[in-house]
# Entry
Amino acid sequence: MTFPWLDLALFSFALLLSSALVWTTTHLCRKQGWVARPRSNRWHRTTPSLYGGAPIWLTCILVSLVCIPMSDPKMRQLLAASTFVFVLGMADDILNLRPLVKLAGQIMAALFVVGSGFVYPLHHNHDVNFVVSVIWIVGISNAFNLLDNMDGLAAGVAVISAIYLAFFYGATGSADYARLAIIAAAAAAGFLVYNFYPARIFMGDCGSLFLGFLLGSLCLPQVTHVSGLPALVLAPCVVLAIPVFDTAFVSVTRSLRRQPISQGGTDHSSHRLVQLGFSERDAVLLLLALSVVSGAIALVARHVLYSHAIELVAAWFLILLFFGIYLQRSYSMTGSGKMAPVIPDSVTDRMRMRDAMLIDATLIDATLIDATLSALSTQPIGNFGDHESVPTLDA
# Structure
């Protein structure tokens, strides 16, 4: 593992640089009139500055080039592909590209990264792994794009996910990838200072696609480096569970309403929480807390017997499924056959709905924690590779 003080210094340096660049971008965009105007299909009602993804990208690139040796060609190729995705997102922010054009660009970048060696070890067949890896990277890129729907949500999840990835890489001795994850976390954190409610700047597609592509790609070497065990193969889905959950939630609910998935709207998990009585700040904090729990579960899954790890991961996904079903109840069918939000009659009703959901969530989480502690206390802890009976997959 890398020396923690050096990691802290790296994080602090990148954080300060990101904050300074975001502050500069905020004032420059406001001076030029480059601000987000309120729209009927968007949640915000203020006029934050645009192009916040630019300082995130610039911080990641500059600090990486200065602080990472770049001896691994895969690292250079990842940064190059991520830069291409950033440019694609910036073009969309400025020119409003067609969805198919954006998708084609993302697939090209994903093919380049996967071809360089970032492969998801899901199956013994390399072709299957190649296709799954491309789908994963493109999917997570768009998941972060969809998650960027409320102040501080996408940036906060990016910070948490990147920190967990940095810890995983540091624990396995992959210092360069750990540093890249630390830099990504710091860049997103510097942006989060100005993006948390009430936001003064939005990251735009250039930021959300860049962060999603970078973190989605970074997950893959970590899985390949450690093992091909089923629980560890699921580790990226666990670390990035909240973007995956929100994308799946919106995709399913919009499909049920026969609404295009790519169309913007105010029906994301964060919006549903507000309709259930949460403030915007509390809704984001709850989802960030769930992201912390997801990363912790991925961490625990690395250090228990694989059978318990699979049970733990499955239990967490089941909890998220029930959470999604609960959120879906905040919409009801109107007489015209369309879905409309269930608005409580009074502030008291909103508070009761919110408190009931929090109590349910707390009880479920307490049960999961108790089961985890029981597994840890009854089974030996260590690397999965220490058990001879554990199956492996060839990447």
